[in-house]
Amino acid sequence: MKTLDIPLLHDNHSHTSLYASLIGCTDLSGMDSDSARRFLEGCPRDHLTVVRGLRSNSLELTPSCLATLPPVLVINFSLHGFALSDSALGFLGSAIPGMGERRFDRVWSEANLPRLFSFYGALAGLTIEKLGIFMDSVKEFGIGSVEDMTVTCREAFDLISSSPYAERVPAWAASDTVPSLGPAPSLRGVKFFLDGSLGARTAALSEGFIGPWNPVMTYTDGELLERARDAASFKALSFHAIGDLAVWQAIRVAESMRGDSFNGEIRFEHVQFITPDQARRCRDAGVKLSMQPNFSSDSVDYADRLAERLCTANDPFRMLIDEAGYVPGETLVFGSDGMPHGVPAAFTASLFPAYPGQRLSLDELLAGYGTARGVIGKTRIRIDGERRSVEILR
């Protein structure tokens, strides 16, 4: 057992404006399936209730189940996908056109993800008070600053930019959201969603999954390259790519952008199933990888849908560092995606992983996160090798 102080860290990947907006909405992720179902059944019937944290591996909301529930909009834990009860349809108001009719269409959901984020944020509402609560909450878990990878709308961007937290929350915008922001010189960069997620069974994996799967590719290569070129005036481009098929598409577009003499930062987010060949291509194209050490636990949490080969291949940090030459804190950075935020989950998953290839050292973790921006502080942690856990000491 070891106790030590570490600096407040910087989370390189989350969704600050959305998570802050959703403060006050019930989170199902910590409930068992019976408790979650009872909660949903007990929601009011005279207005729409927004709920977050649906985990499809523990609670499946089928069409027949949704036909009997009160008016609820339930956002997936992964943020990819949602469940909408039949009785909620009359409460959607100014929702995205087609949202009700296409609510069971996962391809539509992935193609409209940034618009859905904006809709969720508008329903829940972002205030400076909620932003403060969010920043205080992540600080309690060792995080002092956190990048918003998909700022929900102009109002959220303006609120964050004019708040005391502006330096602590660098903001990116999805390519579909950029036009609505207008002049935004402090925008960190532009993000593109190439595929879905493991939780929604929409990540673009070529093989190795169990049960029903609907791999989604949001763009063709040509469409993505055109959008990336349109965003080339920004200093950084980011590509969400979880499955190997999405990683290949991101590589092809990144190489084309480098061929166009784009010298800005190119980041790939997640790349949970990146292969050694892909890693070398990324390195040669000057691509920075932004990954989530806490996602190593997906090898256990999603063993119901990933074959053993993929469980082993998930988050191959040792390959990236020892073989491909990626350097934590320089070409390899870490964040949480909010699933969950904080040191305990990420450090536990990395220091005591399910598979050796996922292991990171304490020094690698600290370098990959980097110290917080705009705030100074320390967190005291306890590393317990016997219990295979990391906790924060209050």
Largest sheet features: 6 strands, parallel
**Quaternary organisation:** single chain
Rg, Å, rounded: 20 Å
- The largest sheet has its strands arranged as 7-8-9-10-11-12
Shape-level CATH architecture of the largest domain: Alpha-Beta Barrel
Q: Strand content of the residues, in percent?
A: 15-25%
Number of strands: 14
Q: Which fold does the CATH topology of the largest domain refer to?
A: TIM Barrel
- Mean pLDDT, rounded to whole units? 95
What is the number of independent domains?
2
Q: Could you tell me how far the N terminus lies from the C terminus, measured between alpha carbons in angstroms?
A: 17 Å
Helical element count?
A: 16
Would you state the CATH class of the largest domain? Alpha Beta
- Element-level helix/strand string: EEHHEHEEHHHEHEHEHEHEHEHHHEHHEE
Q: Per the principal axes of the C-alpha atoms, what is the gross shape?
A: globular
User: Ranges with pLDDT <50 over ≥5 residues?
Assistant: none
CATH superfamily heading of the largest domain: Metal-dependent hydrolases
Structural commentary:
The chain contains 16 helices and 14 strands. The protein has 394 residues and is α/β, with parallel strands linked by helices. The chain has two domains: 2-16 and 126-392, TIM Barrel; 18-124, no CATH class. A six-stranded parallel beta sheet has the order 7-8-9-10-11-12. Strands 1-13-14 form a three-stranded antiparallel beta sheet, covered by helices on one side. A three-stranded mixed beta sheet has the order 3-4-5, covered by helices on one side. Helix 9 crosses helix 10. It starts with a strand and ends with a strand. The model has no long low-confidence stretch (mean pLDDT 95).
